Structures are given as C-alpha cells and as structure tokens.
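We were asked to recover a plausible sequence for a given structure. The inputs and outputs are reproduced exactly as logged, with field labels preserved.

PROBLEM: sequence recovery
POSITIONS: 320
GIVEN STRUCTURE:
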C-alpha cells in the first residue's frame, strides 16, 4: 500500500515545521498549507488521506474549514483532526460537533498525535473498503435488474417486461383518452432460414432485426421480443392509421437489409399487424394484443411481407 498523504493546515511557521517533522518521521507524505483557503483547495484537488487542521488561521477559522471539508462531496470522506491550543471541553465538543473526527490539544505529545492519526486512517481505510463493496453490490444489482427485463438473444425487452409496460401504457391511454398503437411483427419463413443457413445465421437475423427495430423508428418507445421470431412494438400517443408509416419504413428497411451470414441476394421479409386505441371494442390490454396478433395473421394469409390493420372487432371474433 502506498504511503498515506497528510495535509497540515497551520499558519505558525514554527508549529508547522514541528508537526511536519513528526508526521514525516512516521513515514507519511506531507502537504502544507499556511491558511484555510489554500488548504481547502489542496484538499479538493490532491489525493489527501487525512487533514491536520489548526483551529486559529489568518483567513478562516479551522471550524469553518472543517465544515466546508465535511460538506463537500469531494472531501467529506477525509478524516480531520483539529489541532489547537484551546484545550477546554467546550472547544473539544464544538470541534467534534462541526464534524472533526478527532481533536488534539497543543502542545501534544508526538506519540499521541501519531496514534490518533493511525486510528483515523484505519477507520478511513475500512470506510473506503465498505464503500467499494457497496458500489460493487449496487452495480451487480443494476446488472441483475437489467437482465431481468432483457431478452438475452436480442437485447430488446422480454415479454414479461413488455406486459408490465403495456399495462401502464394501456391504462394511461384509456384514462386520458389517448391513442396507443400496438404492432405485432413476425419474420416470414423464419424456419427455412434456420433450416437452410443454420441456427447461428437465424440468431443473427433475430438480433439484426432487433437493432433495426431499435434504430429505425424513433416513435417506438417500447420494442420487445414476444416469442421465437415474433416482436411487439408499442407506439404511445399514436393512432393505428398513423402507425402505418413507421411500420412501412420498417418493412422496407428489413427487406433492404443485408444480413450477416446470409447470401447477399437472400431477402428477409416480415409481416406486421397493427391494432390500437381509440376503439370502444377494446376493453383490455389483452384485447389490444389479440387484435394486433389477428391482424398479423391476416397479413400472413394475404401473402406476407405486408401490413394489415385490425378492425377492432377481432378480439370478439377470435373468441368464437
Ligand atoms: Mg494558528
């Protein structure tokens, strides 16, 4: 471990010299400041492990400097030991109340000062370690949270998270009487891609289409993988007839895309079904998905590589 660096803020040259030699004799690196302003700047800009702070300084009081150090994001974790000629209990209490970690009255014994420095550094080291562990755990937790809502194959939202988002968007659209479109998208003849070019080629088609979905249409706020080769998109504040334009752009960009691992002339197409609000027949979020799914089914049966709109009544028809 590298040597700890100690900042001594002391205006009296004689006292400064003496404190410095005690601290240096114990093997610490030392930085000096002869007033509070300089000391505070050094603490903010240098890597400091501990501050020895004189109580009476020419510009600001030691108490004021201590408060600044403890309030500042960059310096609040640095332990501060107050050094002062004032030795009354009131002064000690006042020093500790403004956030000093320890208090050593002058004149001090070298041994006592060094022992207190060591004790403060030990505590700081443990706190730094704990902070490190805490940061690590927080990052791991973020990763886990992200994994829980992400489809591993495509990086889009997974179906479970889509259902949560759909729940929110559908209730909001109903409550405020706002439009909301749902697009179901399915890759045409996906099985033949896997059969002809192998599963790795099929997987890269899925992830490249996912990238096109993410990138191509700015209006899409939610893009998720719904199942094997089926994707679902939600367009808040968009009526179904307005959703045709972005859907057409998607259809075109996918059929024009050259997919890695496939022959250059191999065209991949998709079929898209659109359903949406406002529609008095659509009472629940499941109706919305069902209608989009049925519109997709119509697109498949009408020859694929096309878009079909739901007429809103399918949720009832399909029950039959
Ligand atoms: Mg002084």
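RECOVERED SEQUENCE:
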């Amino acid at each position: 471990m590298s040597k700890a660096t100690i900042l001594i803020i002391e205006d009296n040259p004689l006292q400064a010299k003496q404190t410095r030699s005690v601290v240096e004799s114990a093997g610490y690196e030392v930085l000096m400041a002869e007033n509070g302003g300089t000391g505070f700047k050094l603490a903010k800009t240098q890597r400091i492990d501990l501050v020895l702070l004189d109580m009476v300084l020419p510009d600001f009081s030691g108490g004021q400097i201590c408060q600044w150090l403890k309030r500042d994001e960059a310096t609040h974790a640095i332990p501060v030991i107050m050094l002062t000629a004032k030795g009354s209990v009131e002064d000690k209490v006042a020093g500790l109340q403004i956030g000093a970690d320890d208090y050593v009255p002058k004149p001090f014994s070298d041994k006592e000062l060094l022992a207190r420095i060591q004790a403060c550094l030990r505590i700081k080291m443990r706190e730094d370690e704990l902070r490190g562990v805490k940061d690590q755990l927080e990052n791991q937790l973020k990763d886990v949270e992200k994994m829980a809502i992400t489809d591993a194959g495509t990086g889009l939202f997974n179906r479970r998270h889509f259902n949560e988002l759909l729940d929110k968007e559908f209730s909001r659209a109903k409550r405020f009487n706002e439009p909301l479109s749902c697009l179901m998208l399915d890759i045409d003849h996906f099985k033949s891609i896997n059969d002809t070019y192998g599963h790795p080629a099929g997987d890269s088609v899925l992830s490249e289409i996912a990238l096109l979905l993410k990138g191509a249409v700015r209006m899409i706020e939610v893009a998720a993988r719904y199942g094997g080769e089926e994707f679902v998109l939600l367009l808040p504040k968009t009526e179904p007839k307005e959703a045709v334009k972005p859907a057409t752009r998607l259809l075109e960009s996918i059929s024009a895309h050259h997919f890695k691992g496939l022959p250059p002339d191999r065209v991949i197409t998709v079929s898209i079904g659109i359903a949406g609000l406002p529609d008095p027949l659509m009472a629940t979020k499941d109706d919305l998905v069902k209608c989009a799914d049925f519109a997709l089914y119509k697109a498949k049966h009408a020859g694929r590589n096309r878009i079909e709109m739901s007429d809103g009544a399918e949720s009832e028809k399909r029950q039959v």
